[in-house]
Amino acid sequence: MMHRPESLTFPAGFLWGAATAGHQTEGNNVNSDYWQREYAPGTTVPEPSGDACDSYHRYREDMALLASTGLDTYRFSLEWSRIEPEPGVMSRAAIDHYRRMVEACHDAGLTPMVTLNHFTVPRWMHADGWWRAPRAAEHFARFTEAVLPVVREGVPWVCTINEPNIIACGAGAEEGGANLVAHGLARPSRQVSDGLVRAHHLSREVLSAEGIRSGWSVATQAIHAEPGCEELARAYSYPLEEFFLEASRGDDFVGVQAYTRTFVGPDGALPPRDGVETTLTGWEYFPAALEIGVRNAWKVTGHVPVIVTENGIATADDDRRIDYTAEALTHLHEAIVDGVDVRGYLHWSALDNYEWGRYAPTFGLIAVDRTTFARTVKPSARWLGEVARANSLSFELAGGSA
């Protein structure tokens, strides 16, 4: 564990919160491409999402619990397939639902950050070619225009697309790309990467015309080169991370999402080394990944302000979650001291939710009973809330463990 001063104070107005995604929490997102995948004959998805956390109906409870801990910001996503179930057909009821979510955030004393796309798309868009379709970017721009009533007022930050680099990696896997890491990533599809960049820029044009601040979130990899493999590591990293960070130049912010690190050797990416601590997702326990990702985003974007839109750990040991988060925040503070403009920290996740095929990897600050949907606030949530209230990480709050 690293040594640090008795307390670390964060900038005035720093955002402290947690994040979720629609498909992972709402439940019964039946018109999405991922729901279709869950129930396709011969599916490789181990477990369907089903009711998820029933947050489509329980979002006020979720927000109230977050606010009760002391957190002040909530990032949630819109489900495109609910809003535009058929091409050009917009559901006023769904748009009104998400506007009520924005208003509920304010009622609870939370600042909303809204993500327009968190992985899932409508079935019709998937059938039309997904992000490979020639008009995919135009479809997304049309969707952005449709949801302006949701985000036009009271939403200071809009994330256009969540982890476009991971979406492009999924496309690369479909195209038979070589595995990048042991956890299923493949080399990003250049066609899809280019399409996502265009979609992001068209969406930002719509939002900027309304005076809405926007950016997107990139899954940073904290890449480490094995001795003598520095050039290989740079060549490996560019299409996976820097390409998407370069596309953020000129944005109002860039979202950084960080969990672990990746080693690159002569034959490419390596799995975690023998004997290292790993999480329920099989990733190496490495809190310093956050600082590395933030510094790289700040450098590559040409000093676009950073918001940590996701950071956390899949574990059943909530004390270990506190340890990880305290150490990650300590590293983050070092970047801030060095002049990186970091505007906030949003933990992943607010809830133990559906982690794209399984419920077993528990990232949440709040536990959710899989049968009753009863919520239980974990000690880690109350701990992070105390950090938020103080806007400072103290030795006492961290329990002396980080």
- One letter per element, helices H and strands E, the order comes to EEHHHEHHEHHHEHHEEHEEEHEHEEEHE
What's the story with the biggest beta sheet? 8 strands, parallel, barrel
Extract low-pLDDT stretches: 178-184
Strand order of the largest sheet: 2-3-4-5-6-8-11-12
CATH class: Alpha Beta
N-to-C span: 5 Å
Tally of DSSP helical segments:
14
Helical content class: 25-40%
Account of the 3D structure:
By secondary structure, the chain is α/β, with parallel strands linked by helices. It has a single domain, classed as Alpha-Beta Barrel (TIM Barrel). It has 14 helices and 15 strands. The strands form four sheets. An eight-stranded parallel barrel has the order 2-3-4-5-6-8-11-12, surrounded by eight helices. Strand 11, helix 13 and strand 12 form a beta-alpha-beta unit. Helix 9 packs antiparallel against helix 10 and helix 13 packs parallel to helix 14. It starts with 6 loop residues before the first strand and ends in an 8-residue tail after the last strand. About 2% of the residues have low confidence.
